[in-house]
Amino acid sequence: MNSLSSSRSQARLRLRVRPAAESHLRHGHPWLYEGSIREQNRPGESGELAVVFDRQDRFLAIGLYDPDSPIRLRVLHVGKPQNIDAAWWAEHLETALARRAGLFGEDTDGYRLINGESDRWPGLVLDRYADTLVLKLYTAAWFAHWDTLTDLFASRFPDMRLVLRLSRNIQPAAAARGLHDGDVLRGTAPQGPVVFRESGLRFEADVIRGQKTGFFLDQRENRRQIEQLARGRRVLNAFSFSGGFSLYAARGGARSVVSLDISAHALASAERNFALNADPDVASCTHRSVQADVFEWLTTSRDRFDLIILDPPSLAKRESERAQAVRAYARLAADALRLLEPGGVLLCASCSAHVSDEEFFAAVREVAQRSGRSFKELRTAHHAPDHPASFAEARYLKAIYLQF
Fold first, then answer.
1. Are 297 and 395 members of one domain?
2. Taking Cα atoms as reference points, which of 236, 222, 245, 346 lies closest to residue 288?
3. Which of 73, 281, 367, 381 is positioned for an S-S bond with 399, CB 3.0–4.6 A?
4. pLDDT score, position 4
5. What is the domain count for the chain?
């Protein structure tokens, strides 16, 4: 992969950075912010490969330059100089795929193949749903290398459909190149949601317009854990979305499951997912969908449950919302405890990167202690193995299991 053709006649874009940034790069941080650059030899173009030199004028790192983002450089490689060409990218892809080798059996064909910066593919996610790949981009820097990128995926996955998803902030830049969110780049457009398998269960993924890339693949390990805890229990799946936790609980032998969500669209998807699965345990479980605001419903319901799952969407999308989010997590846990029977299990999860593990776990534990009920902490959990998180800003997912 070469830099922009318009830049080939120019000198290589060279950056020198502040000492703190140099240290961060050496220790594996994948971002270089605008304010950390103290010198560059010329203006850079979007997607250009830029080299960072250290204080001794030695090669330190190379990455994708983005003049329109506060993250000016997204690092591809740190250490000895490397030639970033087609062979390098092919090997780079195989490294990411090798990390997933052996993680999934034939009963699972929905998982993450590339997890952005943590796989050294900055601002790029690639998910698989059965015969469909979904490529999601978070930086316009990739458009400078579009043909190389798509040719590489076509060569490695010749029989798979490829769908493009775009973060909102780069959609104008994509449109200037004739690319749009939901474009089918290769293969025929799907006739409705794509059906894939996870641990033998069948789910639908709206790969064209759905949230994220069509499904919340990152909660797979927690769904599997809920299956192990569900037998004989009455289960509440709050913020249920398309019913992932609900289905696992049903297959695990739950007596009943309530899927609670404010979105009628999400609940309809959950009903379809139940219909996709002919497992005897799923069929014998009483499943009920409730459309309501979770915060309000928890304070008014008189139902009782033996297992409650609280998996809200991100409650802190920016740092200024962090304290408010911590209070909201605590409120949810306290209100859920009011509905939890003795011996019941509460799972609280957070996908807010701005709320640290320590803050989130402390908030839930404090609620448990203040409840006056005896409890034990069963476990805490973080990222699934196909969603590695190699630096602080990437560590968003955490969960805690408490039994009362």
1. yes
2. 236
3. 381
4. 41
5. 3
Which pLDDT does position 3 carry in this prediction? 42
Catalytic residue among 247, 336, 351, 367: 351
pLDDT of res. 2: 45
Specify if 40 maps to a domain: yes
pTM above 0.85, yes or no: yes
For residues 345 and 399, membership in a common domain is answered with: yes
Q: Is 356 in the same domain as 289? A: yes
Report the C-alpha gap between 36 and 99 in whole angstroms: 32
Question: In this structure, are 309 and 253 located in the same domain?
Answer: yes
Among the three residues 62, 78, 94, which one is the final residue of a domain in this structure? 78
Report the CATH number that the domain containing residue 26 is assigned in CATH.
Answer: 2.30.130.10
Q: How high is the pLDDT of residue 239?
A: 98
pLDDT number for residue 6? 41
Domain that holds residue 73: 5-78
Any idea what the CATH number is for the domain that residue 305 is in? 3.40.50.150
Stretches in the chain below the pLDDT threshold 50? 1-7
135 with 50, same domain: the answer is no
CB 388 within 8 A of CB 115: yes
Does the annotation mark 351 as catalytic? Answer: yes
